[in-house]
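User: hey, got a sec? need 12910_t:CDS:1 folded
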Amino acid sequence: MAPEKRGGVVDHRLRVYGTRNLRVVDASIFPSIPAANTFAP
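Assistant: Yep! Here you go:
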């Protein structure tokens, strides 16, 4: 998540820049890899 002018692809609400009604709902948008397991029950 970063501003589009800095090379970002999604905004803080996970909306993809340059599209309508498209959001990313995946861990691939994490700015860094967490040190813990991301799987939740």
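Quick note: Residues 1-30 form one domain. Let me know if you need anything else on 12910_t:CDS:1.
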